[in-house]
């Protein structure tokens, strides 16, 4: 019997969208990536991972805590939000360690990838439109609301399962092994595109088959 | 009598193009920034500074020396070059400390801003098309060649003048004071745009007057 991943691999190659739930640029890109993918007959394969683990390898640091760059980022997030016509609110204590939504995503994906995709987008909206730090399973499940057709207790228990925790670890290991060090980070037919700024190049690449 | 800077300020507000001569993304953006500026009736004000000094404030590090990100950057530079139809060659020992071209730029600018602009573009081409590390005045002057209408000895002596050194220090201080932490970093009517990836947004911003 084919697994979820087998099915994803068998469909016309999806655009992998690697991201951290605590990443504002992932939020912005999440609102455009499906339009870009659909334009080229592609699906989006949502791939949350823990950016903080990648930072340990690269020595990079979060935007908000970097002098000068943090000020620019805050200015830019407001500018991006105005351009997209969405409200933007940075969650308190940003960046937050996005373990609960990342774990729950993979638990949901094993059951229904479409539900998991909606959950991913909903969590990014909750984090950056409503400004909710998704730091525990209860908050995450409440933020997801009716999008997830499972009882809250089931989801909260799932987020604590060792196998679910391991799945996120495996995905994060996979990200590092494949050279993914930022969020969002898109891969199309093996070609890497780092950053929300690269949606236009990804679009161009998909349109012409690369150069 | 108006100084060079007074004249620049009196013309329709130019696009400030802050960059480090050792920055591949500055090289790529240097090949497009004038087209973008001209489309909106703007001039380009070339502003070399020392990115390494900014790194001391931000804690950021050079692309090539960052694990994972360095591999991506090298892949991306080749991709950008293919897209622009230019050859790309990383100078040996990259990144290099770009003191000589930066100092000579400001010495030239005080005499003829148009010559200084041509010198800036020529040095970026020398660094990244020919792969020449511009680490000393002799190499820089030789790379600039006939673009600069001064004897080589005059230029080599100029690069060592305390006042010229101080001018570069002042410009680098200005960059940090104004929140400039990367290369290229463009400013249009006070609005900051970081990175070659933001040429499209800068173009859009200039076209509509901002949002």
Characterise the protein shown here:
Chain A has a four-stranded mixed sheet, with helices on both faces. In chain A, 55% of the residues lie in helices and 9% in strands. Chain A is built from eleven helices and four strands. The radius of gyration of chain A is 16 Å and the shape is globular. In chain A, helix 2 packs across helix 7. Chain A has one domain: Glutaredoxin, CATH 3.40.30.10. Chain A binds chain B through residues 54, 57-61, 66-69, 71-72, 75-76, 79, 82-83, 176, 179-182, 192, 194-195, 197-198, 200, 211, and chain B through 54, 57-61, 66-69, 71-72, 75-76, 79, 82-83, 176, 179-182, 192, 194-195, 197-198, 200, 211.
Quick summary of this structure?
The first copy, chain A, has 211 residues and is of the alpha+beta class. Chain A contains 11 helices and 4 strands. Chain A starts with a helix and ends with a helix.
């Amino acid at each position: 019997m084919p697994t979820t991943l087998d099915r994803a691999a068998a469909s016309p190659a999806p655009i992998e969208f690697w991201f951290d739930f605590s990443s504002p640029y992932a939020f912005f890109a999440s609102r455009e990536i499906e339009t870009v993918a659909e334009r080229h007959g592609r699906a989006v394969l949502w791939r949350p991972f823990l950016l903080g683990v990648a930072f340990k390898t690269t020595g990079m640091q979060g935007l908000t805590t970097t002098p000068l760059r943090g000020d620019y980022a805050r200015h830019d997030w407001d500018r991006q939000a105005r351009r997209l016509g969405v409200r933007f609110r940075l969650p308190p204590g940003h960046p937050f360690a996005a373990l609960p939504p990342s774990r729950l995503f993979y638990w949901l994906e094993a059951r229904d990838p479409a539900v998991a995709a909606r959950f991913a987008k909903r969590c990014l909206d909750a984090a950056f439109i409503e400004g909710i730090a998704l730091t525990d399973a209860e908050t995450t499940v409440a933020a997801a609301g009716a999008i997830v057709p499972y009882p809250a207790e089931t989801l909260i228990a799932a987020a604590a399962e060792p196998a679910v925790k391991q799945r996120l670890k495996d995905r994060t290991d996979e990200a590092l092994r494949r050279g993914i060090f930022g969020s969002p980070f898109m891969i199309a037919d093996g070609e890497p595109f780092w950053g929300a700024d690269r949606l236009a190049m990804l679009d161009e690449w998909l349109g012409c088959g690369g150069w």
